[in-house]
Amino acid sequence: MFLPQSFPFITDPFFYAVTVPAVLLLGVSKSGFGAGFGSLAVPMMALAVSVPQAAAILMPVLLLMDVLGMAAFRKDFDLKLLKFLIPCGLVGIVVGALLFKLLDARLVAGIVGAFTLLFLAQRLLFPPKADSPPPPRWLGALLTAVSGFTSFIAHAGGPPVNAYMIPLRLSPIRFTATMAFFFFVINLAKWIPYAWLGLLDWRNFATSVVLLPLAPIGVWAGVKLARRISQVLFYRFLYVGMFLTGVKLLFDAVR
Prior knowledge:
The protein has 255 residues and is mainly α. The protein has one domain (13-254). The chain has 12 helices and no strands. It has helices spanning 13-32, 41-45, 51-72, 79-99, 105-125, 137-154, 158-165, 172-189, 191-196, 202-211, 214-228, 231-254. The mean pLDDT is 81.
């Protein structure tokens, strides 16, 4: 894609070597696996750029993916659940914006990674029974607020909200559709505080434009998978994605 010299973008080949697969994985995740694998995108990009810069570059890409995901699942989301999730997520964004310059993004990512692995260990060692009640609403509110917070800091909002959503045992389509609409609102709400914090600049935006054509490819692949996969296999993939995310985030924090 041609861009004028006054509209510079990142030209480092290594950046694109790690970012192209990260963006495709993000697209598949957002439209097919409820943001499970998607939390790996920023850690992968952080191999080439800083975490705040990676998060800023992904902003326009995320917006396009969210719009495409909502269009694909516009009739499948759970409105009642969204009315509960969205306000809690917005509270987390406000907290993230206020604390952004005081917190190290890798430390936050490490906390998310540790929490994710603990959740998975609990699910595997003490699997819930078929008639187990859903998690209490106060826990859902807390986890969703944490999701908004970690989404703002490092686009790693998937694991916390998944920890609440998975025990609800929604169908793959309803799960994915609800998450698509939830993260559209969350990602849209980040734009003003990101600008306020000085994270949005022309170089990052130009790099986002270069990456935008990858968004529909990843979303298309994710939609196809979500509509064809069984519920059992869907949640197995989700667990694998959360495990890889947790390991990668924790590794980045302690290395």
